[in-house]
C-alpha cells in the first residue's frame, strides 16, 4: 500500500504524538509513505526519519479562526496554496499507484484534494479537532462534498459535531510501546512520602488546559489537607499563566504541588502517580494522556466534554467534572480521595477500557478504511 500524508513541520502536542506513532506503525505494516511536510520546524527531522519519501513545501500560514470574512480570506489562501503546490507534489511522487491522501489540519484540505484528484485516489481528513459552531459545520460539509474528501473523526464526540456524513471514527490512540518499555516499574525520584496519595497531570501548561483551576481546587480539597501531592508535567510558553498557577498553589508550591517540567519518560510518571488528571476549559476532542493513563491502570479525573465521556464512567474508572471551576475540581478531588479503597479496582477497569484506544488497533482500522474493507 502507498499513501501520501500531509503534515506540519511545527507539529507538537497531541497531533505530533498521533502522527509519529501512526507513521511508525504504518511503516511496520509495510506501507510506503510519501510525506509532504509544510513549513520548517522542530518536527521536520523526526518526520523525515519515518517516511520513505519527503517533499518540503513552504508554510501556508493558515488557521481557520475569526469572523466570517476572515475565514473566507483564509479559505482563499488555503485554495491558492493547494493550487500553487499540487504539481510539485505530483511530479515528485514515484509510486505507480497511491491508495490514499491523508491530512489532519484544515489548511491542507485543498492541497490534499487536488493531489488525490491528480492521482485518481481517495482523500481523507483525519480530524484533529471538533467543530464548534454551525457555520463551520456547514462550511466543512459543503467543502467535503465539493472536494470529495471523506472525514474521519478522532472520537465519537467529534463525529457528532460534524453530523451526518462523518460516521467513521479512528482514534489518535496511544503508543503502548513507550509505556511498557519501563518494565521495572521505576518511579520518579522526588523525595516525597510514598504513603500519601499522588495525583498527576501531564500536558502542555496553558490556559486551555486549566491547570490554574485544577491547582486551586486541589489546594482547598480534603486530599491536600491529608497530605496528598499534585504533580504537574509539561512545558509552558506563557510565563504569566505559569505564575498564576504558582500563586494559586500558595504555600503548597514545591512541597505538595510539584512542577516537573517537560518529561520524556512518561512511564515513570504513570508509575509514580495513583490518579491521573485531565483538566480543560473546553471540549477535549480525544485525550491521549487519558488513554495512556487507562492503559497504566489509573483512575482518571477529567473534564467531561468530548473524548473523556467515551473513556471514563463516573465512579467506575474515574470521576467526571461537569463545570469549569475550581470548586468543581475540588469536589472531584474529594470524591476521588473518599474512593481511595477502590483505586486498584478502578484501575483494572481502566485497563480493560484502553484496548480500543490503542494506536495499533486504530492503524489497523485506518488501513481497512483505505482498502474499502470497513
From TrEMBL:
Annotated ranges, domain Glycosyl transferase family: 190-347
Record Gene3D superfamilies: Glycogen Phosphorylase B (3.40.50.2000)
CDD domains: GT4_PimA-like (cd03801)
InterPro entries in the record: Glyco_trans_1 (IPR001296), Glycosyltransferase_grp1 (IPR050194)
Domain of life, source organism: Bacteria
MF annotations from Gene Ontology: glycosyltransferase activity
Annotated SUPFAM superfamilies: UDP-Glycosyltransferase/glycogen phosphorylase
Name of the protein in its database record: Glycosyl transferase family 1 domain-containing protein
Species, as recorded: Mongoliitalea lutea
Amino acid at each position: 500500500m502507498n499513501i501520501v500524508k500531509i503534515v506540519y513541520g511545527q507539529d507538537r502536542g497531541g497531533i505530533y504524538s498521533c502522527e509519529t506513532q501512526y507513521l511508525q506503525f504504518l511503516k511496520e505494516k509495510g506501507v510506503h509513505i510519501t510525506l509532504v511536510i509544510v513549513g520548517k520546524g522542530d518536527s521536520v527531522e523526526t518526520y523525515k526519519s519515518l517516511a520513505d519519501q519527503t517533499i518540503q513545501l513552504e508554510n501556508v500560514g493558515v488557521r481557520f479562526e475569526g469572523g466570517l470574512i476572515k475565514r473566507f480570506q483564509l479559505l482563499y489562501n488555503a485554495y491558492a496554496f493547494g493550487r500553487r503546490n499540487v504539481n510539485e507534489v505530483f511530479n515528485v511522487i514515484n509510486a505507480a499507484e497511491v491508495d490514499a491522501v491523508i491530512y489532519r489540519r484544515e489548511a491542507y484540505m485543498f492541497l490534499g484534494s487536488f493531489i488525490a484528484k491528480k492521482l485518481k485516489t481517495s482523500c481523507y481528513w483525519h480530524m484533529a479537532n471538533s467543530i464548534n459552531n454551525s457555520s463551520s459545520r456547514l462550511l466543512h460539509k459543503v467543502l467535503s462534498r465539493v472536494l470529495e474528501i471523506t472525514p474521519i473523526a478522532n472520537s465519537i464526540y467529534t463525529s457528532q459535531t460534524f453530523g451526518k456524513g462523518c460516521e467513521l471514527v479512528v482514534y489518535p490512540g496511544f503508543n503502548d510501546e513507550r509505556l511498557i518499555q519501563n518494565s521495572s516499574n521505576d518511579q520518579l525520584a522526588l523525595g516525597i512520602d510514598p504513603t500519601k496519595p499522588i495525583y498527576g497531570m501531564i500536558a502542555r501548561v496553558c490556559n486551555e488546559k486549566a491547570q490554574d483551576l485544577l491547582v486551586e481546587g486541589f489546594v482547598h480539597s480534603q486530599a491536600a489537607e491529608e497530605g496528598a501531592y499534585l504533580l504537574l508535567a509539561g512545558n509552558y510558553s506563557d510565563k504569566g499563566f505559569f505564575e498564576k498557577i504558582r500563586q494559586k498553589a500558595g504555600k503548597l508550591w514545591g512541597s505538595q504541588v510539584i512542577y516537573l517540567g517537560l518529561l520524556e519518560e512518561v512511564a515513570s510518571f504513570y508509575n509514580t502517580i495513583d490518579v491521573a488528571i485531565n483538566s480543560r476549559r473546553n471540549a477535549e476532542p480525544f485525550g491521549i494522556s487519558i488513554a495512556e493513563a487507562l492503559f497504566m491502570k489509573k483512575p482518571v479525573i477529567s473534564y467531561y466534554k468530548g473524548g473523556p465521556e467515551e473513556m471514563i464512567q463516573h465512579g467506575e474508572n474515574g470521576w467526571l467534572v461537569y463545570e469549569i471551576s475550581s470548586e468543581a475540581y475540588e469536589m472531584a478531588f474529594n470524591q476521588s480521595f473518599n474512593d481511595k479503597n477502590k483505586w486498584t479496582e478502578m484501575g483494572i477497569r481502566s485497563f480493560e477500557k484502553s484496548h480500543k484506544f490503542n494506536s495499533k488497533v486504530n492503524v489497523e482500522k485506518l488501513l481497512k478504511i483505505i482498502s474499502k474493507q470497513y
